[in-house]
Design a protein that fits this description.
By secondary structure, the protein is mainly alpha-helical. It has helices spanning 26-35, 38-55, 57-60, 92-128, 130-145, 148-158, 164-173, 177-191, 194-201, 206-242, 254-257, 264-269, 275-299. Helix 1 packs across helix 13 (275-299), helix 2 crosses helix 13 (275-299) and helix 4 packs antiparallel against helix 5 (130-145).
C-alpha cells in the first residue's frame, strides 16, 4: 500500500534529560581520594586499635603497672607475666598497655597545644602582615635559635617536678615555631586570592573573611601538619624519657620502658622488656605518618 502524501513520518518523543548531578563538595572529594589510599586506611586501623588499648587499659592489664614484685626481678616471660618483669619487678605487659595511654595522651595533647599556639600566631601574622607579622616572626626566629632538646632540658631542669601535664605544656611551648611558619605561609598565599580581595572590597569583616575563606582553605594544611606533629611528639617523648628528661618513673610510658635497653644484660637476655615498646612506637608513628600522607594527597586539589 502506498503511503499517503499528507502523512508525516512518526518521530519518537525526546527522552527526558537526566537530572544533573549535584556538585560535589571539596570535602567529599577529599574523602573519596583518602579511601583509595590503602596505607592510610591501614594506619587508621592500627591507630584505632592502639586507642582502644589505651582506653581499656584497666581491663586489659593483668597487674598494677607501678607495683613491684620483689621476688621477680628481671624475670623471663611466663604464664603470669606475659612479657616478664623489669629491673624493679614491675610487669612489662601491664606497663606496655598503660604506656599506650600515656604516650598517646602526650602525643595528642602536645600536638593540640602546639597547633593552637603555632597556628594562632602564624594565622595572625599571615592575615594582617606588616608590623604584626614582623614582630611575631622575629619572636619565632628567636625561639628557633635554641635547639629543641637544649631548650626543653633547660626548662625541665628548672622545674622541681615533671608531671604529665607539665611535660605536655613544656614540649608544646618549645616546638610551636615550625607550625607557625608553615601556617603563616599558607595564610599569606590565601590572602592574595581574588575572592579574598573581593570580600574585602565589599566591606566584609575580618572574622567573616577568616571564617568563610581562610579556614576552609587552610584546614587541609592544618590537619596534615597536626598528624606530623603528633608523630613527632610521640618520638620526642620516647627520646626524652629514654635519656631521663621525660615523664618520670614509675609512670609507664613507652619511652621510659626503653630505658631497660641501657642494660647490656637485659638487652641480650630479656628482649621482651624493650622490644615490644620499641615496636609500638615504630608502628604507631608509621601509622600516623601514613594517615598524614593520605590526608595530604586527599586535600591536594591537583591530585
Amino acid at each position: 500500500m502506498e503511503p499517503r502524501l499528507n502523512e508525516t513520518p512518526s518521530v519518537s518523543p525526546p527522552t527526558p534529560a537526566m537530572p544533573e548531578e549535584k556538585s560535589v563538595s571539596p570535602t567529599v572529594l577529599a574523602f573519596r581520594r583518602f579511601r583509595k589510599n590503602k596505607l592510610a586506611l591501614a594506619g587508621i586501623a592500627f591507630l584505632s586499635f592502639m586507642v582502644l588499648v589505651a582506653i581499656f587499659a584497666d581491663v586489659i592489664a593483668t597487674h598494677d603497672p607501678t607495683a613491684s614484685q620483689l621476688t621477680k626481678i628481671e624475670a623471663k616471660a611466663d604464664s603470669e607475666n606475659w612479657l616478664g618483669t623489669d629491673g624493679s619487678g614491675r610487669d612489662n605487659f601491664s606497663r606496655l598497655v598503660y604506656g599506650a595511654r600515656i604516650s598517646l595522651t602526650v602525643g595528642f595533647f602536645a600536638m593540640l597545644f602546639t597547633v593552637l599556639i603555632g597556628g594562632t600566631l602564624g594565622s595572625i601574622a599571615g592575615y594582617y602582615g606588616g608590623k604584626i607579622d614582623s614582630v611575631i616572626m622575629r619572636f619565632t626566629d628567636i625561639v628557633l635559635i635554641f635547639p629543641f632538646i637544649l631548650l626543653f632540658m633547660t626548662i625541665v631542669a628548672i622545674l622541681e617536678r615533671t608531671t604529665v601535664p607539665i611535660f605536655i605544656l613544656v614540649i608544646a611551648i618549645t616546638s610551636w615555631p615550625q607550625v607557625c611558619r608553615i601556617l603563616r605561609g599558607t595564610f599569606l598565599s590565601i590572602r592574595e586570592k581574588d575572592y579574598v580581595l573581593s570580600a574585602r572590597s565589599i566591606g566584609c569583616s575580618d572574622w567573616r573573611i577568616i571564617r568563610k575563606h581562610f579556614l576552609p582553605n587552610a584546614v587541609g594544611p592544618i590537619i596534615v601538619n597536626a598528624t606530623i606533629v603528633m608523630a613527632t611528639m610521640i618520638v620526642a617523648e620516647s627520646a626524652l624519657s629514654f635519656i631521663g628528661f621525660g615523664v618520670p618513673q614509675p609512670t609507664p610510658t613507652w619511652g621510659n620502658m626503653l630505658t631497660e635497653a641501657q642494660s647490656v644484660r637485659l638487652l641480650r637476655n630479656n628482649p621482651e622488656a624493650w622490644l615490644p615498646p620499641g615496636l609500638c612506637i615504630l608502628l604507631t608513628v608509621l601509622s600516623i605518618n601514613f594517615i598524614g600522607d593520605g590526608l595530604r594527597d586527599a586535600f591536594d586539589s591537583k591530585a
